Predict the structure.
Amino acid sequence: MPASEKPARVRFAPSPTGTTHLGSARTALYDYLLARQTGGQFILRIEDTDRKRYVPGSEQELMASLRWLGLEWDEGPDVGGPHAPYRQSERKHIYLQHALELVERGHAYYCFCSPQRLEKVRQEQQRRKELPLYDGTCRRLPPAEATARAAAGEQHVIRFKMPREGSITAHDRLRGDITVKNRNLDDYIIVKSDGLALYHLAAMVDDHLMGVTHVLRSAEWLPTFPLHVHIVRAFGWAELEWVHLSLFLKPSGKGKMSKRDTQALKESGYSIFVEDLRLAGYLPEAVVNWVALMGWSYDDHTEFFTLPELVEKFSLDKLNPSPAAMNYSKLDHFNGLHIRSLEVSDLARRIKPFLLNAGYYLDDELLLQVAPIIQKRLVTLDDAIPMAGFFFQPQIAPKADDLVGKNMSPARSAHAARAAYALLAALPSISLETAEEPLRRLAEELGLDAGQLFGILRVAATGQPVSPPLFESMQIIGKPVVLERLKNAIAILEGLAAESPHPLAQ
RNA sequence: GCCCCCAUCGUCUAGGGGACCAGGACGUGGCCCUUUCAAGGCCAAAACCGGGGUUCGAAUCCCCGUGGGGGCACCA
């Protein structure tokens, strides 16, 4: 185990504004891995300071998705912890108190400008192709006057008083030192007129109060990163270890996912939402494995990882700063790999809800027999429905054309089926051991390829031209039912032969 | 427009001055195996954005271009 990091207290801090997507899942995964690897804590904090964007139910979905992925947190809104509450909307007074401290110490000031005026200023700046920054009107107010006006109840916000000169250098774990001139930074609003803090203040206050050591977040935060460091330094708090993770790009690699891309992706059967992937039959193990490898690598030859293995092998030093396009065919590959590594009973357990959902009556014993023969063939759990649904249907309805053997006439197919019926009927039971050899000999006697005969039997017994292995399937279906279905197939083939316009065609 | 980040096969990546006519994985093509479909095995095609430096030597370090991406809210 790499002991390079001290016990890390990390936080995953999503805002409850929508459905959990893969980018969040990866951040949470890395948080979890770092915490578990170093013997630290994984904190879940809900950043719900913007009540306008709050989506009811998203918090529940978020927690369900994290738990589905196997990422349990040590402290959070539902499990509590030493720094509760873990929901920012419940910590309003804490932020306000800290903002006032900043005002008193000259690092922040009251601003009484109306949103309308600010909008006008911004438009003018943009027309003049300038950086749209606050023009500093209230920054020049005498502090005593500003405090008096605020105390008198005048509408106001609190802005951070950005130094006008010089620059700030902050360290990012993946990119090294990042230096920005202070004049390119704004006097950001840190407390809104409703008294609630913005992310910039709230997150920094919480990270400090909660003893967070490492901040892992998306690279989208890089532009405001210097502001956050300014705030931390204004308070005189300990510097954090900043890790800005690479962005996730849409599969084409051209930019991040938009609403439209998200919809288009769904139509092709994939999704960036964890919930959708679960519903589509992906294993949490596969999603974790796939997402872990987008922006992180171990060595050249190992790519298959379980969560415990990732806890052991993960390292911040192997993180890659460049944006990564999502490769869904690789997700499919990982899903197949993880499905194949499952115990049969586990696989059966996971397939069950998909079969049930598709309306198939479920016999657990039967499912346990079916699972091993489809295990190598599944890409998603959902694939079990078209692949093995017939096992759970009392009736099958093979298509007449499918029953005709390859390069054979209906009459000849019927003849072959009758011969196979006689052979199988005489067997004590049907299995690979008992039926394969005799059937191969029969094919030879009939002048057929084994594939031609087996094809007819496959469609007759399973109702479909593509199925799990024939003998294993027939064994599961059972001799009486196989014979009954074969009889039915013979009847269909004979009917087809009777109406055939080419009686001589063989 | 301004600020910031990034830059190796189609995609995810290894590589941190000589071990690289650049390795692995997905995908693609071919072959083998084979009762269908898979799985598995083998093989192949496929990349260091460009230009300058530094150096005996650069995919690797520096600079400049170019390209791509992100951000510029009383959102997070």
Summary: Chain A has 21 helices and eleven strands. The longest helix of chain A spans residues 479-498.
